[in-house]
Specification:
Elements lengths: L3 E4 L6 H10 L4 E4 L1 H9 L6 E4 L14 H4 L5 E4 L1 H9 L3 E3 L5 E9 L11 E8 L2 E4 L5 E6 L4 E6 L4 E4 L11 H12 L8 H13 L6 E4 L4 H14 L3 E7 L5 H13 L4 E5 L1 H8 L5 H27 L5 E3 L4 H8 L1 H4 L15 H4 L3 E3 L7 H10 L4 H4 L19 H20 L8 E15 L2 E14 L7 E2 L4 H14 L3 E6 L13
Parallel strand pairs: 1-2, 1-3, 3-4, 4-11, 12-13, 12-15, 13-14, 15-16, 18-20
Antiparallel strand pairs: 5-8, 6-7, 6-9, 9-10, 10-11, 17-18, 18-19
Helix pairs in contact: 6-7, 7-14, 9-10, 16-17
The structure holds xanthosine-5'-monophosphate (XMP).
Length: about 525
């Protein structure tokens, strides 16, 4: 299928362009300019280009973008992308003396279809340089309140430029403006829908029919949806291995039991609790804990697979993973290539497995966002609760017991987490947050339990709203709810005298405490 190619110049909103275009029914992919140039040289072509915004100035960029303009394909330039387009086509860009960031009013101008929008509306600006003279034959369609050019178009060339971000929700009529580009300027036909999405994933799996496929199964939304698609295509050639690292919540054990009973998935339960605890003994540094959990996972998994292959006399060819598009994009981000990205926390789930075990990767969801995967899951007939579960990190409670992990500390988190989970459901608040969990803080505080003085630990409630985990805000839940959870935890969880609520956003705080 042909797509719109979104060339990522490093704007923090690039992912949103893809999401918005798909919501409007147009399939799009994100790539760096280098990857785009390589594909074009290899003869591939998109339906249209979108040049994203970016933090740099065109006055410091001497990249030759001719290869894009030589294609004579529809093109939308957003912010930095508009400046590249304008300069290339003979317009004039001026260095800004003062940047313009945040809300701004724009007014419609000229004869564009956008003139049916209200005379002036709010948009989200983020730029320093700006276009002062549009390229020849481009019509100015939007101007900002202070007289700057905010939008230009040329229908004959099928090109449009916007000095603001139509993809962010802060921009009024953003979807209509994007749709105007897709429909009126680029004359594209809609090519993305839930059915197309499912078909793409199915065909990815169908291509390996006849092979033995192994899935590192966590029971989370992504691995469940990936495994369900794969099972429908591969039947008994799909094997799901679930590793119990002893760092799971009661709801996770229950969920796996339910899936074993209620789905056709062939789930092998591997109890490796003792090994994980022994490897975590004496380790209190968060990164070292993550590494210990990650390498132990690989060790257990690899050993179990070899044993299984021997016993059943089979050989696995593929490792099925529920990798999502944000993971793929992160690894192609221009920031990453430029070496600017920093590892805040290492994510160790199945990293390293495929190379060691000489398995090829099968990642049918790798072009999808989480909400699309949820839609797919429902379309596949999976229960609503299963596909709307909160995310749960691979290292599990290991990073929710601060400092050294012990079985008794894990129990405190398990019990408190179960209380939080029960109350969220009882008060129909589970879906009001994106992720909710408890953390055991290694501090003791004084309390009174019964008539006696208690000197015990603290449980922190972490409940956040987010769309992709990249940024998050704390969830403003009713005080009565928080009070009930707190009172149940101090009464029911042994060794805990105090409950606190974390009201830190991400950034600067991360969602997990370690
Ligand atoms: P942070 O703590 O980095 O987390 O703000 C963002 C999201 O990622 C989850 N997370 C992980 N998920 N393996 C995972 O699969 C990991 O090692 C890991 N670390 C954090 C976290 O729960 C949140 O949803």
């Amino acid at each position: 299928m042909q797509d719109i190619w979104i060339i990522d110049f490093g704007s923090q909103y690039t992912q949103l362009i893809t999401r918005k275009s798909r919501e409007l029914g147009y399939s799009s992919l994100i790539m760096t300019f280098d990857d785009c140039a390589e594909k074009l040289k290899a003869g591939e072509k998109p339906l249209a280009f979108i040049l994203s915004g970016g933090p740099q100035s065109i006055f410091e960029d001497d990249t030759d973008y001719n290869i894009i303009f030589d294609q004579k394909l529809p093109l939308l330039g957003i912010c930095y992308g508009m400046q590249i387009m304008s300069e290339k086509l003979g317009g004039k860009v001026e260095r800004g003396v003062q940047g313009e960031y945040g809300h701004a009013l724009v007014q419609t101008q000229g004869s564009s279809e956008l003139s049916h929008l209200p005379g002036s509306f709010n948009v989200w600006m983020s730029h320093f340089d700006h276009v002062v003279t549009p390229p020849t034959d481009f019509e100015v369609i939007l101007k900002s309140g202070n007289g700057l050019i905010a939008g230009i178009e040329n229908k004959a060339l099928k090109m449009m430029g916007l000095q603001f971000h139509p993809e962010v929700n802060h921009t009024d009529h953003g979807s209509e403006i994007l749709e105007h580009f897709f429909k009126d300027i680029a004359n594209l036909k809609q090519n993305w829908s839930d059915e197309v999405m499912l078909e793409q994933c199915r065909s990815e799996v169908a291509a390996v029919k006849g092979s033995k496929v192994l899935c590192a199964f966590s029971g989370g939304v992504d691995s469940l949806v990936a495994a369900t698609i794969a099972e429908k295509e591969l039947g008994e050639d799909l094997y799901c291995f679930f590793v119990d690292n002893g760092l799971l919540r009661p709801q996770d054990y229950h969920h796996i039991e339910v899936l074993q009973k209620e789905t056709p998935l062939n789930i092998e339960f591997i109890d490796a609790k003792d090994l994980f605890y022994s490897k975590l003994k004496g380790v209190s540094d968060p990164e070292k804990k993550r590494k210990a959990i990650g390498t132990t996972f690989i060790e257990v998994f690899e050993q179990k697979v070899h044993q299984f292959e021997k016993e059943k006399d089979i050989k696995f060819d593929y490792l099925l993973q529920g990798t999502l598009y944000p993971d793929v994009i992160e690894s192609i981000s221009p920031h990453k290539k430029g070496g600017k990205s920093v590892t805040i926390k290492s994510h160790h789930n199945v990293g390293g497995l495929p190379e060691r075990m000489k398995l090829q990767l099968l990642e049918p969801l790798k072009f999808l966002f989480k909400d699309e995967v949820r839609v797919l899951g429902e379309a596949l007939g999976l229960q609503y609760d299963w596909v709307h579960r909160h995310p749960f990190p691979g290292p599990g409670i290991g990073v929710r017991v601060l400092g050294e992990v012990s079985e008794s500390a894990v129990k405190k988190v398990q019990k408190s987490d179960q209380i939080l989970f029960e109350e969220l459901h009882a008060q129909s608040l589970y879906q009001a947050s994106w992720q909710a969990f408890t953390v055991l803080l290694p501090v003791k505080t004084v309390g009174v339990k019964g008539d006696a003085r208690a000197y015990e630990e603290v449980i922190c409630l972490r409940i956040v709203n987010s769309t992709d985990g990249m940024t998050a805000t704390w969830t403003d839940l009713p005080a009565s709810f928080l009070g009930k959870v707190s009172s149940r935890i101090v009464n029911e969880v042994e060794g805990v005298t105090r409950v606190v609520y974390d009201i830190t956003s991400k950034p600067p705080g991360t969602i997990e405490w370690e």
